[in-house]
Amino acid sequence: MAVHAEEDAPPPAATASVARLFNHLPYGEADPTALLPVPSLPGCTMAREVVGDLERLLSAARAEGVDLGAASCFRSVAYQRRVFCAGAGNCDAVAAQRARFVAPPGYSEHATGYAIDFVQRGGDCRAVEQCFFLTPGGQWLMKRGPEFGFELSFPAGNKQGVGWEPWHWRWTSTPAARARFAFAQASFPALPAAQIKTAAGHEVRPPSLETAPGGGIYAVSTSRWGAAILLASSATLRP
């Protein structure tokens, strides 16, 4: 894997003919002029069409006593390379191990400007830890995140073979956003999936956790016991 490519040009959007790298799919980098800062999240930049829904999501959560923040929003391919290779003398030598916890450069949904890593503010769960699922924010997102166009990219036991990331959500409310994730959505559906407004204005609701195709470990239990089992088993589900 050439993570030290001389140029930062990202690979094309994922299609059926594009191979995965350590189970991650390739994504192109958003045009910087198409990004906007998120007013409620200092330091967070997202694709401009995401910002309105994200602000509404955060406001709705606050109205219910849930204080959500962000650990990471848009990340350039160059920044992703620095994160992926940090502290490694030979990045290629440790790539497979690193990819269990972070996408290789050019293979992160964050580069699209449509993905965000949420955090629960004021709690004892650190950022990007699976305990986020048990926090008020994690539980609220599972119930209401799809209403605002967000879906969980990597649910527990996902068929893509990427580690369970209850904090990582992508926004797919426009045709452009859905086009970015078309292959991922078709081959490795999110759960819960985002609600989509049709031309007639009707909402298409995502499958529930109870009726999701395949069931099994792909459906996430909201009980503490079920979550504990998922926390213990998720390490074996990582690529």
How would you explain this protein's 3D organization?
With 239 residues, the chain is of the alpha+beta class. The protein is built from seven helices and eight strands, in the order E-E-H-E-H-H-E-H-E-E-H-H-E-E-H. The chain has a four-stranded antiparallel β-sheet. A two-stranded antiparallel sheet has the order 1-2. Strands 7-8 form a two-stranded antiparallel ribbon. A hairpin with a 7-residue loop joins strand 1 (35-37) and strand 2. The longest helix has 16 residues, at 48-63. The chain is globular.
Task: Name its key features.
8 strands; two-stranded antiparallel sheet; alpha+beta; 27% helix; single chain; 12% strand; 239 residues
Distance from first to last alpha carbon: 16 Å
The H/E string reads EEHEHHEHEEHHEEH
Mean pLDDT: 82
Class by alpha and beta content: alpha+beta
Radius of gyration based on Cα positions: 17 Å
Number of strands: 8
Q: What quaternary form is this?
A: single chain
| DSSP helical segment count | 7
Main sheet: strands, sense, barrel: 4 strands, antiparallel
Indicate the topology.
Elements: E1 35-37, E2 45-47, H1 48-63, E3 68-72, H2 77-85, H3 95-98, E4 115-120, H4 136-144, E5 150-152, E6 168-171, H5 175-180, H6 182-187, E7 196-197, E8 203-204, H7 224-237
Antiparallel strand pairs: 1-2, 3-4, 4-6, 5-6, 7-8
